[in-house]
Amino acid sequence: MTVSACKTGVTERHYYPQLADVKAAAEKIARVAAHTPLQLNRNLSLRYGAQIYLKREDLQAVRSYKLRGAYNKISSLKSSQLQNGVVCASAGNHAQGVAFACRELDVHGVIFMPVPTPAQKVEQVKMWGRDRIVINLVGDTFDDAYAEAIRFCEGRDATFIHPFDDEKVIEGQATVGLEILKDLDGQMDYLLLPVGGGGLAAGVGSVVHSTSPNTRVIGVEPAGAPSMSVSLQSNENTTLVEIDKFIDGAAVCRVGERNFNICRKVLNRMITVDEGAVCSTILDLYNAEGIVVEPAGALSIAALEKVKEDIAGKTVVCVVSGSNNEIARMEEIRERSLLHSGLKHYFIIRFPQRAGALREFVTDILSPTDDITHFQYSKKTSRELGPAVVGIELQRPEHYAGLSNRLNKSGFIYEYLNDQPDLFQILI
Fold first, then answer.
1. Is 33 helix (H, G, I), strand (E, B) or coil?
2. Is 2 helix (H, G, I), strand (E, B) or coil?
3. Rounded Cα–Cα distance for residues 191 and 267 (Å)
4. N or C terminus of the chain: which is more exposed, having fewer CB within 10 Å?
5. Taking the domain 18-65+167-333, which CATH number applies?
6. pTM of the complete model
7. Is 321 a catalytic residue?
């Protein structure tokens, strides 16, 4: 089934956002959406030798920009389109935006979320929607929830609120661009936008493209989910068979049709950023700035390292898209950051099954600053060698060369796991 099969309130499939419509959206959402700050970040500016501004959409009421598009869409619907309520599928920020809009506009909403959605996210959606929404937990993945939402929508002639492939949603997200241009004193040389389904990039990119043509607009995707990058390279909207869903707010298999058609006109470049680099950025922002962001919210800042030669001496705006991060994810975020930074290394080491073998490994292989953070071993009395999965955290990335040399000279039989992602994911 496709979205076009159910009632969306939109008849035009290919369009380009008009500035007048974006300004109308800004007026409409002004009563619920904050005009978020555009802040000069001195630490980042010093690091990159540029004027780096952060557009703080993480400070919205629902802690993401998604409120803008959801509210603009639902408030634009006619009473006949609202009589059977609205429906959406989301495991995160879009659900919160729809729930908030339903409560504010006194509209009944049904929100489908996958069963494994963390309880914290489900509770947030309930809090914003209260008695105006019903949450249905179905399926194991977003795709399962999405398919069920479409079936539900068609069966009841309800209006589906798409998270990104919708004109009014795009125009609502585009209001972020109006605010940036209003608040920035002077020329914006670069604008970095996170890209998931493409709603934010299409909306903000179109505003900046038409009103600040000298600004280079750069889209940023996770390396594990480069759906827009692949589509632009192949010059057709392309569905990815597999993606890394870690950066859940920006990990989609296929971008929106409208979004693709707009982004191919307004984006000057696409950049992909490794998930580990995003995790390091999350930790840096928290430690240095006290700013809490979700993985998708850190994408544009993580991409600065990829364009540092280009942006020196320039004025750069990074859109921080959201801060709905769960505390339970922080350990995984730290782990991915350490792996990306070359500070954490995993091995399968086959220890001789004799007394003193482990002591030998600790005293002869590890340096005084190396730390064993993971050790999983089961002695098998019928074998000469017993395999152990060992995780070692280093103080500095360059210390790995010494560790590797000592392992090679020691006679211990080992296998390095960091560069074997399939095996790594099974064992760690």
1. coil
2. coil
3. 10
4. N
5. 3.40.50.1100
6. 0.90
7. yes
Kindly name the residue from 66, 73, 121, 306 that is annotated as catalytic: 66
Domain spans of the chain, in order of start: 18-65+167-333, 73-160, 342-427
* Residue matched to tokens 């879009």: 94
Q: CATH homologous superfamily for 342-427?
A: ACT domain (3.30.70.260)
Q: How far apart are CA 221 and CA 274, in angstroms?
A: 9
> Tens place of pLDDT for every residue, the chain, 428 residues?
233 335 544 444 579 999 999 999 999 999 999 999 999 999 999 999 999 999 999 999 999 999 999 999 999 999 999 999 999 999 889 999 999 999 999 999 999 999 988 888 899 999 999 999 999 999 988 888 899 999 999 888 999 999 999 999 999 999 999 999 999 989 999 999 999 999 999 999 999 999 999 999 999 999 999 999 999 999 999 999 999 989 988 999 999 999 999 999 999 999 999 999 999 999 999 999 999 999 999 999 999 999 999 999 999 999 999 999 888 889 999 999 999 999 999 999 998 888 888 899 999 999 999 999 999 987 666 666 788 999 999 999 999 999 999 999 988 899 999 988 777 777 76
- Two tokens at 25? 């959206």
Q: How far apart are CA 127 and CA 125, in angstroms?
A: 5
Contact 224, 243 (CB under 8 A): yes
Joined tokens for residue 284: 């840096």
Two structure tokens written together for 254: 């296929």
State residue 137 phi and psi, 5-degree precision: -95, 115
Single out the residue of 139, 141, 146, 147 nearest to residue 242, CA to CA.
141
Question: Residue 189 phi/psi, 5° resolution?
Answer: -80, -40
Whether the Cβ atoms of residue 25 and residue 72 lie closer than 8 Å to each other: yes
Residue with tokens 């800004």: 26
Classified as helix, coil or strand, 83 is: coil
**Catalytic annotation present for 314:** no
Sign of the torsion angle spanned by Cα atoms 220, 187, 21, 87: positive
The domains spanning 18-65+167-333 and 342-427 adopt the same CATH topology: no
- Residue identified by tokens 């790594």 is 424
Query: Of residues 75, 321, 323, 337, which has the active-site annotation?
Result: 321
Measured CA to CA in angstroms, residue 126 lies from 38, 110, 163, 387 at distances of 30, 11, 18, 48
**Rounded CA Rg of the chain:** 24
The angle at the Cα of 109, spanning 104 to 114, to the nearest 5 degrees, equals 125
Q: What fold, for 73-160?
A: Rossmann fold (3.40.50)
66 is written with which tokens? 């998604």
